[in-house]
Amino acid sequence: MGRRHLLLPVLAMFAGSAVLAQPGSSARSQEGGTLRISFSPAAGLDFVDPALSFTQPAWSLLDATCARLFTYPDKPPPTGFRLQPEVAASWTISDDFKTYTFRLHPSFRFSDAKPVRASAFAHAINRVLQPSVDSPGALHVQDIVGADNVLSGRTKTARGVVARGNTLVVRFARPAPDFLARTTLPFFCAVPPGMPASGEGVGAFPSAGPYYVQEYRENERVVIRRNPYYGGRRKVHLDGFEVNLRGGSPSDLLKSIDRNEADWGHMISAVFLDPTLDLIRKHGINESRFFVRPGLGIRMLAFNSSRPLFRNNPGLRRAINFALNRQELLATAGGPIVARVTDQHLPHGMPGFRDAKIYPFEGNVARELAGGHLRDGNAVLYTTGASPFPVQAAQLAAKQLSQIGLDVQVRQIPDHLTSVNYLETLTARGAEWDIAVVLWTPNIPDAHAYLNLLLEAQLFGGETLPRLRSRVASAQLSRAARLPQGRARDRTYAEVDATLARDVAPVAPLNVLHEATLVSERVGCIVLRPVLDLAVACLKK
Predict the structure, then answer these.
(1) What does pLDDT average to over the chain?
(2) At what angle do helices 487-499 and 471-481 cross, to 10 degrees?
(3) Which of 166, 305, 440, 530 has the greatest number of C-beta atoms within 10 Å?
(4) What is the pLDDT of residues 405-457, one digit of tens each?
(5) What letter would DSSP give residue 138?
(6) Degrees to nearest 5, angle at CA 490 with 139 and 188
(7) CB distance 320 to 508 below 8 Å
(8) Considering all CA atoms of the chain, what is the largest pairwise distance in Å, rounded to the nearest integer?
(9) Helices (H), 183-313
(10) Among residues 512, 511, 501, 394, which one has the least CA distance to residue 454?
(11) CA 434: distance to chain centroid?
(12) Looking at the DSSP assignment, which residues form a beta bridge with residue 252?
């Protein structure tokens, strides 16, 4: 599959308090100025080319430079995760969800003044499909008619992508009810129709979003400037960004922001937990500089329903959910400052989330449910050794499950494997695991990505992580996916989320990790989704 996988490689997100408020700023903001960004080489920017970029730092920059058919508002969640049109002025969807027709706003222009036509989006899709590019975004468009011919190198363009002037038509080989949400991904930014397709990526190039990449020096710096021809509605304040790609270690990077030598940077969660930094005492939480927000990653125990222990055995899957003391498990991850317990598939703050409180810790209920469903009573639990938290969680979960008569053997996957390698190990044919510690972080902040992609095996022609075969689950998920964006869809997904967790129990969600942000004292206009929204950031006067 190369890089064509479902989850972002940067899966570790930082955590925060359970009750959070959107920050405000009493300081007046100025127009213009340059934001100083710094990234650590160890966990920073991979590409600025939209077809290849696949890290959180890079996606933060691309969100400020991209113009997409659909996007999300520059507002905090849950409003910030409600889909809205950007370049698409109007659109129609066929009854079978196989044909999408978009008509574009005529106001959008690239930073070289050229108008954005439908060919800009057609080229973005076809670039992603080129085998020479090996884009991680190919997974999201491989169900387009003719995409297989492009992926195999037989053609350069997919038959299902047709651009005429300001009209774009995209046809799929099977129903694609989530395509509007897919268009929000940076892979499908409007790009110049002549932009070359290369696995090495393109550096500086014209963009149609609020900003554009003026200069890119690999492993050194990125210079981003305001697009003088931007025709969208996002409120832009800055002249641009200076991005240092040699920000030192994550700890050094964080210290430079604390000292106001840099304005913002993205770094791994463990850095924020360093008590020597003393960030809470210095800045408080959610006041003016240090912010903590619910993230998008859910740590869970996945059940392998293709194995004898869990096949056609919802009783045991439910028993395990009751047997887990999630508060104790959270303590192994750092406690409430790191994450928030959950027993559902959707993260807090996601449209469609409703706290149903399905699985309180109930040892007696767990033992009663487990009775008669333990089968041979043995389970193999896989975990990654990428950090201490998953290992500790696995060991504690094994201890808790022994209370219902389940003998759990913990196996740690070698530390040198990345999170992507770990997931490929779990989904490999014949993988001998019954339970696995997983951090589930879909690319798209939408209920469809959290539920349908987790549980519908036919999507993308692949296998789901839990390998569950449930007609009830498939029927409910398919019905929810076909609803138009809006409150009715949110309510339906909330009901499906709770019903599947209660009756089918394909996994045991444990906690929702949160995201932390530190900015310099210069930064204003702070919107967190959950990381800093660079497109609308400003400097204080």
Answers:
(1) 90
(2) 170
(3) 530
(4) 999 999 998 755 556 678 778 877 778 999 999 999 998 999 999 999 888 75
(5) G
(6) 30
(7) yes
(8) 70
(9) 250-258, 269-272, 279-283
(10) 501
(11) 26
(12) none
Residue 270, amino acid: A
514 closest CA partner among 334, 247, 389, 384: 334
* CA pair distance 159, 179, nearest whole angstrom: 17
Q: Strand 99-104 and strand 240-244: pairing? A: unpaired
For residue 237, how many other CB atoms are within 10 A of its CB?
19
Query: Can you read off the two tokens belonging to residue 249?
Result: 């270690």
- Closest CA relative to residue 363, chosen from 332, 421, 402, 337: 402
For tokens 């920059």, the residue is: 61
pLDDT for 39-59, tens place per residue? 988 777 999 999 999 999 999
3-state secondary structure of 278: coil
3-state helix, strand, coil split of the chain in percent (to 5) is 30, 20, 50
Neighbours of 430 (CB within 10 A): 5
Residue 168 confidence (pLDDT): 98
Q: How far is 392 from 331, CA to CA, in rounded Å?
A: 10
- Mean pLDDT calculated for residue range 11-15: 28
Q: Residue 496: pLDDT above 50? A: yes
Share of residues in the chain with pLDDT > 90 (%): 75
